[in-house]
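User: Structure please.
Assistant: Input sequence and predicted structure:
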Amino acid sequence: MLTGDGELQEGSNWEAAMAASHYKLGNLTLIIDCNGLQLADTIANTMEISPLRDKLEAFGFDVRHVDGHDTGALAGLFDSLDYASEKPHAVIAHTVKGKGVSFMENRPEWHHTIPSEEQGEKALAELSQGLDYEQ
């Protein structure tokens, strides 16, 4: 199950978390894209959800943190989870919205903005410069 930290401001997510723990869904993994931003502002300015780890643990989750941009770390973490346990898992994947694109990084408006053709070309150029082909 995949969600964002901004989406966790909605009560239905916490109802689902409570049910996952109650029904001992150890084969469930909640992945949270944690970038501190939502539709129009920061999480902190809208409705703070911290301490996220403490809240998830209180709901009965096994909680882990990972760099959400590190695919190797993500794969290793998923391989290490005990899916036979009775505790659902939560992976807090720390990310940067718009990572690798200078004019998009950490800018909430890019949650809903459509780039112009020129902006799209610039974004693709910046992303291709940042690729590491040795991984």
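The CA atoms of residues 4 and 33 lie 5 Å apart.
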